[in-house]
Amino acid sequence: MGLHTYGLMGVDWEERVRFDRLREQRLARVSKLLSESEMGALLVFDFNNIRYVTSTHIGEWARDKMTRFALLTRGGEPHLWDFGSAAKHHRLN
Asked: Which of the 8 DSSP states describes residue 75?
């Protein structure tokens, strides 16, 4: 097509956001900075940081709940701790 357009939706006539590359570059950037630092691991609680490191997002409703955290160890893959099923939690208590 002769007209270049911008947008968030996926289309077949041009490449827009390459989400796989975005996820890989984010994790690579954090891993590189961690390996260059004196820290052995990075523990994150902020939703934006969790999303950056793990590429996961559960919605805005839980932003202020402090229910999730992620750990990235030097040379390792990110580990995400998330809350389980609310139905199962209420059944056990």
From this structure: T
Residue 30 burial (CB count, 10 A):
17
Q: Where are the domains of the chain?
A: 40-92
Q: Is 39 left (phi over 0), alpha (psi -120 to 50) or beta?
A: beta
- Integer angstrom CA distances of residue 47 from 23, 55, 63, 67: 16, 11, 6, 10
Q: What is the pTM of this model?
A: 0.74
Residue pLDDT, tens place only, 71-84: 999 999 999 998 76
What tokens does 84 get?
Answer: 């389980």
Angle 45-56-84 from CA coordinates, rounded to 5°: 75
Q: Please enumerate in sequence order all residues whose Cβ is within 8 A of that of 81, keeping only pairs 6 or more positions apart, or say none.
A: 68, 69, 70, 71
Give the DSSP H/E element, type plus range, for residue 33: helix 19-36
Whose structure tokens read 């955290």?
Answer: 69
Q: For 73, phi and psi rounded to 5 degrees?
A: -95, 155
